[in-house]
Every structure is written in C-alpha cells, then in structure tokens.
Amino acid sequence: xxxxxxxxxxxxxxxxxDGGVPWPDLPEDVRQYRARVAGSxxxxxxxxxESMRGNLPGRRQIVVSRSVDAVDEPxxxxxxxxxxxxxxxxxxxxxxxxxxxxxxxxxxxxxxxxGPVDALPDDAPSDGAVYVLGGGTIYELFQPRVDRMVLSxxxxxxxxxxxxxxxxxxxxxxxxxxxxEGFTLREWTRR
Length: 191
Description:
By secondary structure, the protein is an alpha/beta fold. The chain has a single domain (about 1-190), classed as Dihydrofolate Reductase, subunit A (3-Layer(aba) Sandwich), CATH 3.40.430.10. Helix content is about 20%, strand content about 30%. It contains four helices and ten strands; from the N terminus they run ββαβαββαβαββββ. An eight-stranded mixed sheet has the order 5-4-3-6-1-7-10-9, sandwiched between helices. It has a two-stranded antiparallel ribbon with strand order 2-8. β9 (about 170-180) and β10 (about 185-190) form a beta hairpin. The model is unreliable at about 100-115 and about 120-125 (pLDDT under 50).
C-alpha cells in the first residue's frame, strides 16, 4: 500500500479559503484528480467529507474524525486518527501486515467505533494507492507517512485560510511533471 497526498496548492501553499478554493476554476485539474482517485480508497477529514457529500471521490472513504464515530454513507467508515485510518486503508486494499493485527501487532483488533471494513471487490481498479485528500490538518497529520504527493501547483499566490504543509524538498524528488493551463501537475516521491 502506498499513501499518496493529492492536492492543488498555490505558489504560497494556500489550498483553501472559507471552504472553497481561491483561484478560478481549473477543469483539467478536476478531471485528472477525479480520474486518479476514482477506483481507490481515499482518506479525508470530516469537514472535507461533509463538503463533498453530493459528489464523493474514490471508491471508499475513510473519514478521520475525533468528534463522530460514524457517518451516514454506505461507502464511508470513520477512523479516530492516523494509525486507525492506515489500518482501515490496509484492509481496504488487502495489504495488511498481519490479518487480525493492528500495525503488525498480533492480537490487536481494529479500533472501537470503526466497524468492519470490506476489502475492495476483486474488480476494483485499485493500484494499491490510498489517496489523502485533506483538509489542511489531515495533510499535516499524514505528511510524515505519505510515500508520494501528486500536487497541482496552481499559478499565482492567493489569500486563504488553509495551507498545504511545508516539506523538505531535499527529501523528495519530482518523478513526473505535466504542464496544464493554469497549473503544473507534479508527482513527488520520497528519496
């Protein structure tokens, strides 16, 4: 399993303002983002999940929240933190270090309140990636654990109240880069 952050960020790392994005619509970015995460599990915070209720991304959603233990959505499950979310993600992609263990510790079971998780069906087009979709706090919590980042670097700096966490570029390399109108898509991998 690989954890992959996916985000669009301005030159000053702004990713949002008052629940939306501060830059003009970028239809190509939305298309590539939706196509990328379509068949895979996604991890997102409760507020981000709520903002996307009408058009949820990914095949399954892992909602990270300390304030709720369930959501009324058949494709979603709640995790109470990073470790619980990663364990649920492993279950979903069928990549568990030890069936019946949490983080490889035999005898431990899934955290209370998360409920059972069914692995993706055999016909699910998952590549073993689990996508971290935000918001800002979720990106920050998962940043030390992500293997890759797929970032749409939006042209310009914008005012906003939410930023993508800073990263040490010496620990990452750009594996792929594609120019689009209004943004550059870069795939970053850990060195």
